[in-house]
Specification:
397 residues; alpha/beta; VC0802-like; Rossmann fold; 6-stranded mixed beta sheet; 15 strands; elongated; binds adenosine-5'-triphosphate; binds magnesium ion
Length: 397
């Protein structure tokens, strides 16, 4: 079919439901599609009725465009379409070519007449083309669960014909829901939490805490790899690498071992919140799941939440570890996440941390610390690294 112009036809689900916000969602989706397909052979992006079209420079571009589109949130499904003139007889003449190599006993034609100037309505096109394909192939028309669906979309630019659906993740275009600050550890859970929030339209900025030089840089390297990987969903990311070592040294001087994790967490949250405010993020995201480890009890979650001045979102709170692992494998973060590292949280902590931290005790312990100065100092010493996708990574301070 290389003499025909081809397009990727992108469909959304929820966007259509969003009423007043729809034009803004569609604009954001279009911007994201443009960023996602940079350098992949897309000539033009255009809006049709309930869809976005990406005109391919040639059909060879399809495999790369297909793999990029699968990762764009807000895309529910998409197709490779061929463009023909607005002429049904011309389309029929092409049908043997389109159907070559396909074997099917049942089919249906689904016509959408977006361009109302076309003389036949969609019912008439379904009937006319249906009987043509029936004679051509001997297959039967079957409206429910046919073996082959033939989509005929009559747009102003011409008739688009497409067949095989490619499923994507759906959700909302990244950016429409505002920005969140993801606490990214380098473990399995937090990258999955980030992915979930991006899927719901949030732009993620990442905050990683490390205890370098008290430990090596392995956790930092993992965080960098993970952000590099996750940036393909939002095209641009910032990773903030915040030092926790000095704070940890201060905490162990005055606080009992069983309370250290909860205190580390409260400092992490305060620092993340400060960085979030500077970068106009509206919520904090963690990879916690209820009861997964000692620090993730309801009591400890409550004590950590108490110091936050913005919502802490925990998209994995109700997920089992196996479910999170499955997702991590699907989104491609698992192999990095399981590499061995020296995480700051394992520094100076007891085998049995407190599972029912008591807020009054925590507040009393924090009175022995210069909390505000410690937070300010860590924020000042935080390093930033900027990532872009699909282009190469660039480092800045
Ligand atoms: P993960 O698999 O995401 O590391 P986890 O099961 O190891 O989670 P915890 O160590 O209790 O659980 O961490 C809970 C959450 O706290 C993490 O999901 C992450 O959001 C945040 N967190 C933990 N350590 C760090 C870190 N070094 N830097 C940034 N955030 C962290
Ligand atoms: Mg961890």
């Amino acid at each position: 079919m290389d003499d025909l112009k081809s397009h990727a036809i992108v469909k959304t689900h929820e966007l259509a439901l969003k009423g007043k916000n729809r034009p803004w969602f569609m604009r954001k989706l279009t911007d994201n599609l443009r960023a996602a397909t940079r350098g992949a052979g897309v000539e033009r992006i255009w809006k049709g009725q309930l869809m976005v079209g990406l005109t391919l420079s040639d059909e060879e571009a399809w495999p790369e465009v297909q793999s990029r589109l699968k990762e764009v949130f807000g895309v529910a499904k998409f197709y490779k379409a061929y463009e023909l003139p607005q002429d049904l007889e011309g389309l029929k003449a092409r049908m043997p070519g389109f159907l070559e190599g396909r074997s099917f006993k049942s089919f249906r034609i689904t016509t959408n007449r977006a361009d109302k100037r076309f003389p036949m309505n969609s019912e008439a096109v379904n009937r006319d083309l249906g009987s043509f394909v029936q004679h051509l192939t001997g297959a039967q028309v079957k409206l429910k669960d046919p073996e082959l669906s033939i989509y005929v979309d009559i747009q102003t630019i011409g008739i688009l014909v497409y067949f095989d659906e490619v499923k994507a993740h759906g959700g909302l275009p990244v950016g429409v829901s505002g920005k969140v600050a993801v606490m990214l550890s380098g473990g399995i859970d937090s990258p999955v939490a980030a992915w979930q929030m991006m899927k719901r339209g949030c732009q993620a900025m990442y905050v990683h805490f490390h205890s370098y030089p008290l430990v090596d840089r392995t956790s930092i390297e993992k965080a960098v790899d993970l952000v590099e990987h996750l940036t393909k969903h939002q095209y641009e990311s910032n990773l903030f690498m915040a030092p926790l070592g000095e704070i940890q040294k201060n905490i162990i001087l005055t606080c009992p071992p069983s309370y250290r994790i909860v205190l580390y967490r409260r400092f992490m949250v305060r620092i993340t919140e400060a960085l979030a405010r500077r970068n106009r993020a509206k919520a904090i995201v963690t990879g916690e799941s209820c009861g997964q480890v000692a620090s993730q009890t309801l009591e400890n979650i409550a004590v950590v939440d108490e110091c936050a001045g913005m919502p802490i979102l925990r998209p994995l709170i109700g997920a089992n570890k196996e479910e999170i692992v499955d997702l991590a494998q699907n989104i491609g973060t698992f192999t990095t996440s399981i590499l061995p590292d020296q995480d700051c949280c394992s520094l100076f902590v007891p085998k049995r941390p407190e599972t029912k931290a008591d807020l009054e005790t925590v507040l009393r312990l924090e009175e022995t610390l210069s909390v505000d100065e410690m937070v300010d100092e860590a924020v000042e010493k935080t390093e930033r690294r900027h990532f872009t996708s699909p282009e190469a990574t660039s480092a800045t301070r």
